[in-house]
Amino acid sequence: MALTAQIIKAMAEDSLPDSDLFIVDISVSDSAVRPKITVLADGEQGITIDQCATISRRINKRIEETFGEEISYVLEVSSPGVDFPLTQPQQYKRNVGRNLKVKMQDGTEKTGKLEEVTETGINLLEEKKQKGKKATYEPVQIPYGDIVKANVVISFK
């Protein structure tokens, strides 16, 4: 049995110290000698370094129990950075009121203010720019299934 993202995800979800935390992404490198496991976790109010450390210790313990103490790997547990795309509904909820850039399944992009998060998708106040005119804003509903990638737009204004 090898270290896979599916196995680590199950271990990580069982290792969350608080109910408002969730797993955003898991990756396991292909290295057979010493794979690198990256676990990205977040919470409704963010995640602390202490919570990441707790998750890391619990996953380490589960890996040792399952694979034995001789297994060699590198484990990194952190929060997703601002450049990491939003993937979970909980992440969208934390970013209501912020501007998003959303890449759609059809290849188009939409940019606008995240107004609301629903069970099925997001409501965006899309910015429509026309040459020589002031930008207008149009409400648009985007189902999760239509989203390829969504990132928070960082503004330094």
Gap between N and C termini: 51 Å
**Helical amount among residues, as a percent range?**
10-25%
Structural class: alpha+beta
Low-confidence stretches: none
Number of helices, counting only DSSP H or I runs of 4 residues or more: 3
Overall mean pLDDT = 92
**Shape label:** elongated
Widest β-sheet, arrangement of strands: 7-6-5-4-8
Taking all Cα atoms into account, the compactness measure Rg is 19 Å
How many strands, what sense, and barrel or not for the largest sheet?
A: 5 strands, antiparallel
Q: How many beta-strand runs? A: 8
Order of helices and strands: HEEHEHEEEEE
By oligomeric state, this entry counts as: single chain
Q: Tell me the β content.
A: 35-45%
Question: Would you give an account of this structure?
Answer:
The model has no long low-confidence stretch (mean pLDDT 92). The protein has a five-stranded antiparallel beta sheet with strand order 7-6-5-4-8. The protein has helices at 5-14, 49-67, 89-94, and strands at residues 21-28, 36-43, 74-78, 99-104, 109-117, 121-128, 136-143, 147-152. It contains three helices and eight strands; from the N terminus they run αββαβαβββββ. The chain is α+β, with helices and mostly antiparallel strands.
What is the element layout, followed by pairings?
Elements: H1 5-14, E1 21-28, E2 36-43, H2 49-67, E3 74-78, H3 89-94, E4 99-104, E5 109-117, E6 121-128, E7 136-143, E8 147-152
Parallel strand pairs: 2-3
Antiparallel strand pairs: 1-2, 4-5, 4-8, 5-6, 6-7
